[in-house]
Amino acid sequence: MLSKLYPPEGPNGVKRPGNAELEQSKLWLADVLAEALKHSASLVIDMGGGDRVSEELAAESHLADFLKANGVNPTFAYFTGPERDDFDHVYRIWKSAAFKDGDSILFLNEGLYRSPSRSANPFEWLKEDPRLAQMEKAGVRPVVFPALTCMKYLEGDDMNVFDVVAGKPKADGTKVNPLWAHMTVKWLEAFRHNVEEEGVAEWLP
Fold it and tell me: Considering the entire predicted model, what is its pTM?
């Protein structure tokens, strides 16, 4: 996700491991953490949903304890779609306690809703799931990540939401469709509102 927004070859490109091998990824992650601590810099690590590198490294190294000992309070962000198997996976990772002793946010991504209808709350079932109540009781804050229904058109123009909000032109010099631009600005406002409402803005870089 982050590498799509900030391509590695760009001026603010996201660094990536040399390959997807587990040990190589662990070494890369350890080096990146060391570099961030050296420069007292905030660091965002985006791990794929099926990637267990961060989970294994956190469990092996007591990651949160290490970060806190170096003056860093970690924020662990979990992302789930409305499908039950999505949340099953997130809950398993959270329950493993590989990521603990930090602030935790559960982002409810409405954009992954597979139904064409947007009238129903795709996470209505989750409100009744005792596992969510367990996570909230432990301090996890759920934040709704609204669906941006015009996203496919932005991607078709090779644009991301931040480019659109900033008013940047497309590669051919023309402007993004004004309706898509309006929808994107309203989406960002809604997301920021949700973050503020749950009181987690100060947890994020």
Answer: 0.85
pLDDT tens for residues 141-168?
A: 999 999 999 999 999 999 999 999 999 9
30 is in which domain, residue-wise?
1-72
Domain-located, residue 49: yes
Q: Residues near 46 by Cβ (< 8 Å), separated by ≥ 6?
A: 1, 2, 3, 14
Cα gap 61→198, rounded to integer Å: 30
* Domain presence at residue 147: no
SS3 assignment for 148-181: CCCHHHHHHCCCCHHHHHCCCCCCCCCCCCHHHH
| Model pLDDT for residues 91-148, shown as the tens digit of each residue | 998 998 778 888 999 999 999 887 666 657 899 999 999 999 999 999 999 999 999 9
CB 102 within 8 A of CB 64: yes
Strand-pair partners of 165: none
Look at the chain and report how many structural domains it folds into. 1
Residue 83 lies in a domain: no
Write out the two tokens for 173. Answer: 């010099």
Long-range CB pairs of 158-166 (<8 Å, 24+ gap) are: 160/4, 160/5, 161/187, 161/188, 162/5
